[in-house]
Amino acid sequence: MDLHLDQITHRYDGAPVLDGIDLHIPTGRIVCLVGPSGCGKSTLLRLVGGLERPSEGDIRQIGTPPDGCLNPLTYVFQDFALLPWRTVAGNIALVLEDHGLPKSRIDAVITDVLARTNLSDFRDALPKQLSGGMKQRVAIARALAVEPAVLLMDEPLSALDSQTRELLMEDLVGLWTRQAFTAVYVTHNLDEAVRLGHRIVLLSRRPGRIRDIVEIDTDLADRRAGQADLEEKRAHLWSLMRDEARAADAELVTHG
Amino acid sequence: MADPKDGKPVPFRGGGFAPKPIAWMGPLVFVTLIAAMEIGTRTGVISNLTLPRPSAVLMTFVSLWDTGLLWKHVVPSLSRLAVGAALGATAGIGVGLTIGLFSHIRAGLVPVIAAIFPIPKIALLPLFVIWFGIDEASKYALIAFGTFTPTVVATYGAVDSVDRGLIRMGQSFGLSGLSILRKIVLPGALPGILSGLRVSLAIAIILLVAAEMLGAEYGIGAYILEAGSLYDLERLFAGVTILSLLGVGVNWTIGRIERRVLRWRV
Amino acid sequence: MSRFTRRQALGTVAALGALPLIARPALASTKIRLGALRFTSHAASFVALERGYFADAGLDVELEFFQAAQPMAVAVASTDVDYAVTAISGGLISLAEKGAAKVIGGSLSEEPGIDGQKILASNDAFAAGLTDPSKLDGKSFAMTQAGSSFHYMGSKIAAEEGAELHFKPLQKVGAIIGALKTSQVDAWSIVPHIAKPLAAGGSAHIIGNVSDYLPNYQVTTVFTSTKNADQERGQTEAFLAALSKGVDDFNAALVDKTLGEDGADEMVKLIHKYVYADKSLEDATPGIVNGAMRLNKNAALNLASVTDQLDWFKSEGLVKDSIGIDTLVDQSYVDII
């Protein structure tokens, strides 16, 4: 299932946040949204997932979600958003319970996604017992459990330290390699973008407009930190972003 | 480079402001106070009009136990407390949830709650007698009303403090409104509701005495009031001690419940 | 004032004449506080104050008003109030046991032939057959608090009739009246100036007289702190003497009615300053006249009645068994009858 964004403009209390965004998200690809802080990339993600309605323009799903998909547009949040009173298995069960699945089916799905994210040993642990990286793995497992058509990832690695981030990036690459998924991946970190993105969309500072779109054809599994071609793309993106970021940094905060 | 031995040690400026549990301190204060009362009343430093002799209070307690009067007073009080507080807390949690969830109800009810919260419920006792009679119903109503308002305030405060991120998460996974309420809002609000209940139930115990002012032959409150009107300090203190123990018991019970259901808290 | 009577004229002259007397150096005024309820039964205090009997005795009396008998006893024990007139309550006996208070005289009494306290039945209870105190068995009986005079009266009536009563503590007379009017309690006993208007207004039924069960019941007594009784003999005697003059005036005007209508009117007017002051004189008069029961001459004390009350409190377990009558009463001040 592809997603197509047509002339998306969004305003908060009349102040424009996003301006005329046209974007295509093809099936089986990871599209990274990068930009200086406050450029509206997280807002754009909320619009894509239907948590907010755009002021103008529309967002269309093209084609049908795959069979067995329970929640076509599924988020992975920066702060994990796990229920602290439910175990790992309980958190995953939460998103399956409303669909009237038999208990055995729910258990099977949980076992499967925990295996895919290497969490089988933590099935009955409470979130407070897990490290940040583990929590995000649980959140990813939860997202996978509903067989999403598109994963909407909002800075999923930003709350983690750099080693954990590196490990999780490898996990994501592994997951994608085994079974290609479609994702919109918001980050302010260009390293993540060049490691995980097939297409990198650079937004300008507020109101966010598309400054540039960079395609990287290298297979995800073949990308390594510090690789020359990736480094080049990164440098290109940074040169475009630098002034925007500086200007954005000097702005008074009007919207979070 | 200077010799390190010439320097002076860095002065220590930390410490304090970190409460540590000291188990023996509480009992020590109690024992000291009671001992001082006993000695003071025995020697006459404290007149028998001012305070009763603790040993005499204990004897009163023992005779209450021996004669079986203790249960005759405690059982009706406990049932009034249980029924009244259960009614008030249930209604309070219900109203608190609707205030927490619906803007219209919040806008409509919060001023009403703010208006009735500071009313001393004891002042309404005559009104309750007209509405509910002088039998058990008015006692239940008074205690229920007294526990209702603090529970409402605690509950909607607790609902407000539920992590909005979790609710967004629920919505993003397409959970139904009822599921979000049952599985996210309620458990998330539970810590706040329980700590609100500590306050509400303490108020319920306070109101027990007021509730038993009218038409109660038996009950701890009635017993205390009778002791007060007879100026019988031993009975008065025995009754007050029972109330204190009741308060400690309620607090302990909520503590146990919290430890059980809030295991997940960091 | 349409009519300037001879009596009023005399009163004015007497009051003017009293002025130099107050200044007599031998009786430089002692300031004392006197506890009272706004009931006709406390009229002697009002009369003695208004007519200057206290002032004549060198006492500068200040009235302290209370809502109920029990707090008055505590106030006397704590010496916030020097003297008080009220019913014997469990609280008073307990305070006497602690050496803080003493009964020194008698005041309001039940007396055969004089209208006294009434036994009331609620309308519903009356309709259901409670037409006579002999049918009280199993009924509820209102009282302010355990150990109050209502509790005593109810118990004695029940004992006499072999009835079992459920006592309902309702704290305040107002609350009792409300409960009786709405038939939430079955029976009560109360002074006539409250009982009669309730019956007349159709809110309750009078089914008997307390005096039939408790003849010569010493309803209220005069009491003070043990310190005043033991150490301020002169002041206490002067107080009792002045109060007795008030008693005589009151009995003459409203109980024995020897002063004619004018005397009665004037007494009612005086009492009205303190009792039912929120009503007009016309509205207040029946209440005041109805409430006129005998006050003991010279504050004499009916020791037999007091002893009976003490024994009842003991038998109910409301006060300690060890209390003797001399702990409660200082018999050295007034005649014992």
TrEMBL record, chain A:
Sequence ranges assigned to domain ABC transporter in this UniProt record: 3-230
Gene3D superfamilies: P-loop containing nucleotide triphosphate hydrolases
Keywords of the record: ATP-binding, Nucleotide-binding, Transport
Classification via SUPFAM superfamilies: P-loop containing nucleoside triphosphate hydrolases
Keyword Transport: yes
Domain of life: Bacteria
Keyword field contains Transmembrane: no
Molecular-function GO terms, alphabetical: ATP binding; ATP hydrolysis activity
Pfam families membership: ABC_tran
PROSITE patterns according to UniProt: ABC_TRANSPORTER_1, ABC_TRANSPORTER_2
Family: Belongs to the ABC transporter superfamily.
UniProt-recorded name of the protein: ABC transporter ATP-binding protein
UniProtKB/TrEMBL annotation, chain B:
Domain ABC transmembrane type-1: 74-254
One Gene Ontology biological process: transmembrane transport
Gene3D superfamilies referenced in this protein's UniProt entry, alphabetically: MetI-like
CDD domains: TM_PBP2
SUPFAM superfamilies assigned: MetI-like (SSF161098)
Keyword annotations of the record: Cell membrane, Membrane, Transmembrane, Transmembrane helix, Transport
Pfam family, one: BPD_transp_1
Localization, UniProt: Cell membrane
InterPro entries per record: MetI-like (IPR000515), MetI-like_sf (IPR035906)
Topology term for the membrane: Multi-pass membrane protein
A GO cellular component entry from the record: plasma membrane
Keyword hit for Transmembrane: yes
Bilayer-crossing regions: 22-39, 51-71, 83-102, 109-134, 140-159, 201-224, 236-255
Origin: domain of life: Bacteria
Coiled-coil segments on the chain, per record: none
Family as reported in the entry's similarity comment: Belongs to the binding-protein-dependent transport system permease family.
Descriptive protein name: ABC transporter permease
Automatic annotation (TrEMBL), chain C:
Alphabetical keyword list: Signal
A GO term from the CC aspect: periplasmic space
Gene3D superfamilies found in the cross-reference section: Periplasmic binding protein-like II
Domain of life: Bacteria
Protein's UniProt keywords contain Plastid: no
Compartment list: Periplasm
Name this polypeptide is given: ABC transporter substrate-binding protein
Primary localization: periplasm
Organism classification: Bacteria, Pseudomonadati, Pseudomonadota, Alphaproteobacteria, Rhodospirillales
Residue ranges of domain SsuA/THI5-like in the record: 40-249
Family: Belongs to the bacterial solute-binding protein SsuA/TauA family.
A Pfam family hit: NMT1
GO biological process terms held by the UniProt record: alkanesulfonate transmembrane transport
Coiled coil spans: none
